[in-house]
Amino acid sequence: MVKIVHLSGNNTHVVTAQAGQVIKEGGVVVYPTETLYGLGADAMDRNAVADVCKLKGRPENMPIPVIVSSEEMLDEITDRIGDIEKRLISEFWPGPLTIIFNARGCVPGRITGGTGSVGTRIPGSDFAIKLANAAGRPITATSANAGGLETPGDVDDILKQLKGEPDLALDIGPLRAKIASTVVDARDGKVKIIRRGAVTLEAINKALKKD
To answer: pTM of this prediction?
Structure first.
């Protein structure tokens, strides 16, 4: 039976350490982000990523976004960071902008969806950053839902919907859906919006025009 832990200001440090250890050991954690709940696992552990896909009923050819806690961790999974990406990172991270990079060969195929690329961000959620730090690894940032269904804002409803049990669920109470992160691809030297979200194209263009 899945273990549910209620997060509060008093236990955040201890619970984050516990959740990070679960991820280090190959487990899957339901955790709160700045939007809704996500499924967190070691993004470099093929078996853990496969477990995430099973819980969601997610096809292997659908890429899974990844959260990193620092640019040093980003370097572990990306092959090249261009000048435009560096500007976007400086302007919008931490925050709701997912950037697509060429993935290093060590990144599992179920993360890239067979594309050879990985969508990554340093999130605007302090807790998610702390969780990635505690795990010491990039972590998956896919929504905590079964494929094709809306993500519930309540942990109990999430656990009813998933196609199996995660190892740990961190509950901070109901979360209301917010605008998802914007997804961009600038690998060819021009910014392409792959998914519209919290960061507008206008804001991106303005940031890139700064001296």
So the answer is: 0.94
